[in-house]
Design brief:
single chain, alpha/beta, L-arginine/glycine Amidinotransferase, Chain A
């Protein structure tokens, strides 16, 4: 994801205490694959004028989140978090099937600041916290930094401390023991100062109940996320990843070189790779616009994906997703507003697995 207007906002510490939390392995906790059955999807309503000072654009973002939520709600329950004072206005845009929880939010990135759910063989759930700090204190997160803890408290679930600072959008896991991530968004002083790559990887693997970590270098300091891997590559099945690439390395675009480097590392690590091409003729043509087909969301019976106005590339992406998820309906939405601020549908959603 490219540098966006989010990156220029002032940061505030979340101030979460880490003491007294459960440990992941002690309860046999694991994070199921995204394509496993869900009980619900969690999302967040953007409200902060400090983060989004343009009132008109904030309204467009809210409409986009409503569109995504209403689409998902046709397939599974949606729980949308927002401050109490936003409920009346938001409700007019939302399907009656969507459940609103009055947990305060600032921004919409539920993948990063929302609850990450774990399950165990006893049919229990827990919430895993990656101790969200606004992508390395680049954005205000007074409320968003507390969402995982507040959801756990509301649901009466254990809150597990991952032992690292980061975001769930900064990793991908296949539900069968394998995790992949970019070093740039984890092995970095604005998240985990003093920790080595191996120490961070071990804590991530343990907290997810996984077995092995694949690291690619990524790209630091070019966008607010320091290049989350979920904009580049996604697991579609155990050991099988979908990756989006340009036609060739662009010497003027450091993301293109980093993406090919990641491809080679994933391939050499033994992953089966399916490749998908970047779109060209997008509706939005700004240099920092994120046009990621792989930043889709897998919900019950459907895949909610993006289309960008390039008919040929959009159709090819839909066909690829349909081949990879033959038993699910592929629904493509115009979510350009999210691309303009550096994200996509996956970034705005977080699944709660069924138990």
């Amino acid at each position: 994801m490219r540098m966006t207007r989010r990156a220029s906002m002032g940061a505030m510490a979340a101030g979460l205490a880490f003491c007294g939390r459960a440990q992941a392995q002690a309860g046999g906790w694991v994070m199921p694959a995204e394509e496993a059955p869900h009980e619900a999807t969690f999302m967040q309503w953007p409200v902060s004028r400090e983060v989004h000072p343009d009132r008109y654009f904030l309204g467009i973002l809210q409409d986009t989140i409503a569109d995504i939520a209403n689409t998902i709600a046709a397939f599974e329950p949606v729980i949308l978090l927002m401050p109490t004072e936003a409920i009346a206005g938001a409700g007019r845009r939302l399907s009656g099937d969507i459940e609103i929880w009055d947990i305060p939010t600032e921004d919409l990135w539920a993948r990063d600041s929302g609850p990450v759910f774990l399950t165990n063989d006893a049919g229990e759930r827990a919430v895993l916290s990656f101790n969200f700090n606004g992508w390395g204190n680049k954005q205000v997160h007074v409320q968003d930094g507390q969402i995982a803890a507040r959801v756990a408290e509301r649901m009466g679930l254990p809150l597990i401390d991952s032992g690292v600072v980061g975001e769930a959008g900064g990793l991908e896991q296949d539900g069968a023991g394998l995790v992949m991530a970019h070093e740039s968004s984890w092995v970095i002083d604005n998240r985990n100062p003093g920790l080595s790559r191996d120490q961070i990887g071990a804590r991530i693997v343990e907290s997810l109940g996984a077995e092995r970590m694949i690291w690619a270098p990524g790209l630091a300091d070019h966008d607010i996320t320091d290049y989350h891997i979920d904009a580049l590559a996604r697991f579609v099945a155990p050991g099988h990843a979908l990756i989006q690439l340009p036609e060739e390395v662009d010497p003027d675009d450091p993301f293109s070189a980093a993406s090919f480097q990641a491809r080679d590392i994933l391939r050499n690590a033994g992953l089966r790779l399916t490749e998908i091409a970047d779109p060209w003729a997008t509706r939005i043509t700004s240099a920092d616009f994120v046009a990621s087909y792989v930043n889709y969301y897998v919900c019950n019976s459907a895949v909610i994906a993006a289309q960008f106005g390039d008919r040929t590339a959009d159709r090819a992406a839909e066909d690829t997703l349909q081949a990879l998820y033959p038993d699910r309906e592929i629904i493509a939405l115009n979510v350009d507003a999210l691309g303009e601020i550096g994200g996509g549908i996956h970034c705005a959603t977080q699944q709660m697995p069924a138990v």
